[in-house]
Specification:
single chain; 109 residues; mainly beta; 4-stranded antiparallel beta sheet
Length: 109
């Protein structure tokens, strides 16, 4: 077995205190336009969502614990407007009708 190699870190690869930790939960943040207004969109890795379940506003189904998903909110609003979406539901938001279609066995929440 070979010993572990300790390589020096590249200069400037460390985090600075003033740097935005948007990838703290394993994702990245961007801005997208939807319905004529800018939205902040953060991609959350599954590890960042352990022990939590959310309800997707696109399909009205649960996002189970540990599943990668998207958190989106209007840029002008606060933390209370954040919504957790399935990645596929967020990508299909422009093709979705205003009325959510549920299967017969889906619970109504």
């Amino acid at each position: 077995m070979s010993p572990r190699r300790n390589r020096p870190h590249a200069a400037g690869s460390g985090r600075r205190a003033d740097e935005d930790p948007s990838d703290r939960y394993g994702g990245w943040q961007s801005t997208e336009s939807w319905r004529g207004e800018p939205w902040s969109v953060r991609h959350v890795a599954g590890a960042g969502a352990q022990g939590k379940t959310y309800r997707c506003p696109g399909c009205d189904q649960q996002i189970p614990s540990g599943v990668p998903h998207v958190v989106a909110w209007p840029e002008h609003s606060g933390v209370d407007e954040r919504r957790h979406w399935h990645k596929a539901c967020w990508n299909a938001k422009d093709r979705r009708t205003t009325r959510v279609q549920r299967s017969r066995n889906a619970p109504r929440f």
